[in-house]
Amino acid sequence: MAKSDGGIRILQGLLVFGNVVIGMCGIALTAECIFFVSDPHGLYPLLEATENDDIYAAAWIGIFVGFALFALSILGIVAVIKSNRTLLLVYIILMLITYAFEMASCITAATHRDFLTPNLFLKQMLERYQKSETENNNDKWMSEGVTKTWDKLMLQNQCCGVRGPSDWQEYTSAFRTTHSDADFPWPHNCCVMDTQGSPINLDGCKLGVPGYYNSNGCYDAISGPMNTHAWGVAWFGFAILCWTFCVLLGTMFYWSRIE
What we know:
- By secondary structure, the chain is mostly helical.
- Helices cover 70% and strands 0% of the residues.
- The protein folds into 2 domains: 1-116 and 225-256; 118-130 and 140-217, no CATH class.
- It is built from 10 helices and no strands.
């Protein structure tokens, strides 16, 4: 079988264990990325409207990589147990390709996390929230998605705007062109609501009376979940890469030692 049977047997066992871990990590990575792309917080329309949703692309790559790692871990275990040089070579080549894809996923998720700034979402909110005049169907669809998402976001998180209600006062917006400042200093969803979903005091909300409107911004409610998912995809993927690198080195050495 090999040039040094005892040592190779130990290496064989370690490689089997390493591939078992890779397989489990692949399943976990796939599950994590599926959870991310399912958009449990309903924030994807905001990111899509920025025309830079590469974080979701990284998660889709992660789904593919997770499946690939699981399948390749099985191939690796079989190849190691059988000590088949051809199977091992196929395993190494395919694993290197998968490794490259996972590197791309990790780098994309980590770098685009810094893209999620308050100004990014502020610009998109001002331009698209309740935009009445759209250029085409795609623009209309994006604007409707942004409007629905912001309405839901402000109600569920009891917040207003990106940094606060002042966003609607300090900047020109599509919302302001169709709503008077007296009746709508900010959207009514910024008001504190009763159990029926109506403002508890609409006049107090319009006047900015504390307790009748939500004075905090929504940025934390947006960036928090997105950053969490982005870091999860990036750093869990990086941990998998480190482990896989060690297993690959061991597999290459094992391939060179068997006959």
